[in-house]
Amino acid sequence: MPQLTGAEVERIFREAGAVRDGHFVLASGRHSGRYLEKFQVLQRPRETEKLAGAIASWARGRDVATVAGPTTGGIILAHEVARQLGTRAVYAERGELGGREFRRGFSLAPGERVLVVDDIMSTGGSVHETIAAVRATGATVLGAAVLVDRSGGEATLDVPLYALWRLEIPTYGVGCPLCAAGAPLEHPGTTPAPTVAAR
Question: What's the half-sphere exposure (Cβ side, CA atoms, 13 Å) at 24?
């Protein structure tokens, strides 16, 4: 499957209604004026197949044995990338003490070659936690791939990273101008955001 340009990925997101403007609290606890609702894209199997196919094309030749993704959107993406690579998919859930861990009988063997995938990377937290969970088993992380890197290059990893669409969407902690303007705050997504005051 051919690689996709960032413009093509943006078009898929926009046509799916996945690009939202407003005042949002992200999973990291930071605030943003734009939110990418990836499930508007991931609910569409053909688009998901195309996006995952671009990641699978990048990963071919890297001898991937397993694809791992964080809950929740990473489950769908890991499954579809693994299907196209002919490997298996596992996912890492939030641990009771923080970080991520493999449950439900998932196991990785020492030295097993793993590709980590995720949907949207803002701070890189979910990807870092999934990489740490893989390494805790003794498996090897070959690289990571995301649909969108919205960090503007600020999120960095110690493994090769492939992003289908890269852009910079500012996020805010203390001193959020949207809070100062009194913009109503939305809590999109299913992952509870940390209790971090952005005002």
Answer: 20
The tens-digit pLDDT sequence of the chain (199 residues) is 568 999 999 999 999 999 999 999 987 788 999 999 999 999 999 999 999 999 999 999 999 999 999 998 899 999 999 999 999 999 999 988 889 999 999 999 999 999 999 999 988 899 999 999 999 999 999 999 999 999 888 888 999 999 999 998 888 998 999 999 999 999 987 555 444 444 4
CB burial of residue 180 (10 Å; 0-12, 13-18, 19+): exposed
Domains of the chain (ranges, CATH numbers): 6-180 (3.40.50.2020)
pTM above threshold 0.70: yes
What is the rounded distance in angstroms from the CA atom of residue 53 to the CA atom of residue 55?
A: 5
Question: CA-CA distance, 86 to 126, in Å (whole number)?
Answer: 25
